[in-house]
Backbone:
């Protein structure tokens, strides 16, 4: 099973995500209070910005081109495909 290190800023917490779970599920399993609600890609509570790394989606979430350019991802829909650096900072 492929495991990747996910570093979460600004708290600078690192957790492990496999390719068989969402990034959100991996964070919650690690005991991190990651914002979330619906877990099906509808509420956008779990959005954060990807500063580096590769993810994939089973179902592409609705993101504007601007949001994609800024690196916004839906962590409840995203699977880690490499080590990641994510940020919950909104600016
Ligand atoms: S938890 Fe609702 S969109 Fe991810």
Residues:
């Amino acid at each position: 099973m492929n495991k990747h290190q996910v570093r979460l800023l600004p708290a600078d917490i690192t957790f492990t995500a496999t390719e068989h779970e969402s990034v959100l599920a991996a964070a919650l399993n690690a005991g991190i209070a990651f914002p979330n609600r619906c877990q099906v890609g509808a509420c956008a509570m779990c959005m954060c910005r990807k500063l580096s790394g590769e993810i994939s989606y089973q179902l592409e979430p609705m993101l504007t081109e601007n949001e994609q350019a800024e690196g916004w991802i839906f962590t409840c829909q995203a699977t880690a495909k490499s080590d990641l650096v994510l940020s919950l900072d909104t600016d």
Observations:
- The longest helix spans residues 23-29.
- The pocket of FE2/S2 (inorganic) cluster is lined by residues 36-39, 41-46, 74, 76 (CB under 6 Å).
- The chain has a mean pLDDT of 95.
